[in-house]
Write a structure and sequence with these properties.
This protein has two domains: 9-136; 179-333, Reverse transcriptase/Diguanylate cyclase domain (Alpha-Beta Plaits). It is 51% helix and 20% strand. It has nine helices and eleven strands. The strands form two sheets. Strands 6-8-9-7-10-11 form a six-stranded mixed β-sheet. β2 (85-93) and β3 (98-102) form a beta hairpin. α1 runs antiparallel to α3, α1 packs antiparallel against α4 and α6 (219-226) packs across α7. The longest helix has 50 residues, at 9-58. The chain crosses the membrane at residues 12-33, 141-159.
């Protein structure tokens, strides 16, 4: 069972790319709308000021209440468009009633500029110039849609090709860092993190863990008599044999050289004893294609809650060397009690 995956650089880059797409799709249309609104607001303010000055300078009556009699003159001064944008201008009397207006009613929301009409410094009415913001909103929403489509397509292509290749490269590097290249088993560098995770799970659910360490007997003799290629073949065969007979929840690790470790989860001492005896017999009965038999010596240790990895490994390792000294092809249990098997 492989160790758990951490968040990779490809995942972080994917998150950054998606965040940039979302932020861009939101921010750019907002900025575009604000710039366009400010530009339109400036045009309305300029138009309102100039129109108010022309009205007070060119109409005959000084009171806007009488401007209904000067429709032609005033109609020529009011505007229904500025720089290609439809506007509406309405002249209000001092009392607030509309006197003259030009331009069709505009859909909300509106941008409005109000300019006082002054006669010798005294307000006699007001000029209201308005424009609809709906076209600006429509353009900004269309821009957001275009950015989402372009950004989403770009992000999808980036995730599909460069980031996918980066992800595969990361997986390959992680595999090489965590696995033994000869046998394909996990290597000893990942054992500590696995042990901490499984120990925490065992404490949480009141389960037991066991560690088994085993070593090929007289492996140096195999290398000396048959060559290192043959020794490597024995290591690969042994790894495959043991892998097929441990549970998917167990971790089989090449500990170093011809030495292997099994981190057996949900396993008390009785279950661990049955496991090591089964493995001892499997290896002893397996045909490795050599004239001499291949056997293993094993040490087993049940890990108590809160015990450190180093203590458990030392316990199992000491039990394995007791099995070596006792004649090999057997196992010993670490701790206060020991049991040997032929």
């Amino acid at each position: 069972m492989p160790p758990g995956d951490d968040r990779s650089l490809a995942d972080l880059l994917r998150l950054v790319v998606l965040t940039l797409v979302v932020v861009t799709a939101l921010a750019v249309p907002v900025i575009h709308f604000d710039v366009q609104r400010r530009y339109l607001d400036g045009n309305l303010a300029t138009l309102s000021v100039l129109t108010a000055e022309q009205l007070m300078r060119q109409v005959i009556a000084r009171d806007p209440e009488f401007w209904v009699y000067e429709d032609g003159r005033i109609g020529g001064l009011l505007r229904d468009e500025v720089r290609g944008v439809a506007v509406r201008q309405v002249v209000y009397a001092e009392g607030g009633e509309a006197v003259v207006e030009i331009g069709a009613p505009l859909p909300a929301p509106l941008l409005i500029q109000r300019q006082w009409l002054l006669d010798a410094g005294r307000p006699v009415g007001a000029l209201e110039t308005s424009a609809s913001l709906r076209p600006l909103l429509r353009d900004s929403l269309l821009l957001a849609l275009v950015l989402v489509v372009i950004g989403g397509t770009g992000a999808a292509l980036l995730c599909r090709y460069p980031l996918a290749r980066l992800r595969r490269a990361e997986c390959d590097i992680r595999y090489l860092a965590e696995h033994d290249p000869l046998t394909g088993l996990l290597n000893r560098h990942v054992v500590e993190s696995l042990f901490e995770r499984e120990s925490a799970r065992a404490r949480r659910h009141h389960l037991r863990l066991s560690i088994v360490i085993f070593d090929i007997d007289h492996f140096k003799r195999v290398n000396d008599q048959h060559g290192h290629d043959c020794g490597d073949r024995v290591l690969r065969q042994l790894s495959g044999l043991v892998s097929r007979h441990v549970r998917a929840s167990d971790y089989l690790v090449r500990w170093g050289g011809e030495e292997f470790l099994i981190l057996s989860t949900h396993t008390d001492l009785a279950m661990a004893r049955a496991l090591v005896e089964k493995l001892r017999r499997l290896v002893a009965e397996h045909d490795f294609g050599l004239a001499q038999p291949i056997t293993i010596s094993l040490g087993v240790c049940a890990c108590s809650p809160g015990e450190e990895l180093q203590h458990c490994v030392s316990c199992a390792d000491a039990a394995m060397y007791r099995a070596k000294r006792a004649g090999r092809n057997r196992w010993f249990e670490g701790g206060d009690h020991s049991i040997t098997e032929g």
